[in-house]
Amino acid sequence: MGENVSRDLSAIVKAYDVRGTVPDQLDADLARVFGAAFATVTAAHAVTVGHDMRPSSPELARAFAEGAAGRGADVVEIGLCSTDQLYYASGSLDMPGAMFTASHNPARYNGIKLCRAGAAPIGQDTGLADIRALVEQWTSAPAGIPPTDRPAGTLTRRDTLGDYATHLRSLVDLSAIRPLKVVVDAGNGMGGHTVPAVLEGLPLDVVPLYFELDGSFPNHEANPLDPENLRDLQAEVRRTGADIGLAFDGDADRCFVVDETGEAVSPSAITALVAVREIARARAAGEDKPTVIHNLITSRGVPEIVLASGGKPVRTRVGHSFIKAEMARTGAVFGGEHSAHYYFRDFWKADTGMLAALHVLAALGEQPEPLTRLVADYQRYASSGEINSTVDDQTARTAAVRAAYTGRDGVTFDELDGLTVSGPDWWFNLRPSNTEPLLRLNIEAADAAAVAAIREEVLALVRD
């Protein structure tokens, strides 16, 4: 096994997680070595391990647990869970955690999301590179994993679903909301496991779509970022006359919102809505100018609304490691991304789509207006969504765009993450993919016509 595994690790150890096809790139033997390396690098006396509904997940999670126990860590196995439920376990039990999931990837994939105690992220620069190095060393050594003088740890089972649901509901008061009809599309992912527990007993008429746990994703990909995968939810909201629709991705850490007309609500608008609520709660507790983190792709309406609500906006690069690092540095109360990842200080600075969903349900149910009216104040500008272009030279194409806009009145540039070009009432960001020969374009302007004009001009330069 050693030679092949060592050669393949570069293909499966990503910037923030481990992800590959089963069993050729990731199998139980390799998962066991990852467990041993994880316990060694974190020097943990105890770790927690959970997994999603993919057919390969139970075997991989158990092998990882056995590897960690073999290095002296007591392992708390929480079984089937969403990624944010694993973060809950890591935070509440104060131990490092491992979640076996490939999120929205196709069924043949699986992977591992890792965190330190308190749900602190592990990425390339915060331990993942060290874990990879140990795995490569041990899988290529004839003797395999070396012996340790620590006694073997124990494996125990623990059900955290009820405690997770109770914790989330303690953070948002839903006791006085009006009755709502809610369509929820779990995409055959872990939302089918967590949504019933979290929403049970609330004045909600829940219409379930694809709650059956099925890692083959028989109905559609569990990736709500692709508009194709929202169509069933949108149709069901319209058919049933629901007040709101919610869509979760495969590991249920992201949540997308559909209004009562079946139209998708921008994650930037949800970021602004939740930010206003979290700022108000923090200010009521005596906090002056609570900080809210937003990445540079979110609408400019987000920092405007944060400022108007008495908060302090902080702009970051795209990606959870940057958001979480800034939340730790600033003590931010909340953070949001255009990809529908929402981060909460009260949830160990980790992302949880479920808690964001509870905030939206509370905001909707506390007042009589429909969701379209409620979010209208938070959707100030027109946007393009993310447009991907395959290019032969990312650097040269980006330079051509910059040159074309240089010298224009009122135009400024910044390079926090890719190239952001800003005008008086518009901006766009052109960002290279780290893993593919792509440039990702996001545009925001005063109206759809302005967005279309910028789109045409920039894509002519990028795709010429």
From TrEMBL:
Originating species: Allostreptomyces psammosilenae
The protein's name: Phosphomannomutase
PANTHER family registered for this protein in UniProt: PHOSPHOMANNOMUTASE
InterPro entries: A-D-PHexomutase_a/b/a-I, A-D-PHexomutase_a/b/a-I/II/III, A-D-PHexomutase_a/b/a-II, A-D-PHexomutase_a/b/a-III, A-D-PHexomutase_C, A-D-PHexomutase_C_sf, Alpha-D-phosphohexomutase_SF
EC number of this enzyme: 5.4.2.8
Alphabetical UniProt keywords: Isomerase, Magnesium, Metal-binding, Phosphoprotein
GO molecular function, one term: metal ion binding
Taxonomic lineage of the native organism: Bacteria, Bacillati, Actinomycetota, Actinomycetes, Kitasatosporales
Domain Alpha-D-phosphohexomutase alpha/beta/alpha: 13-139, 163-262, 273-381
Pfam family, any one: PGM_PMM_III
Top EC group: isomerase
Any GO BP: carbohydrate metabolic process
Annotated family: Belongs to the phosphohexose mutase family.
Domain Alpha-D-phosphohexomutase C-terminal: 386-460
Superkingdom, taxonomy of origin: Bacteria
Cofactor(s) the record lists: Mg(2+)
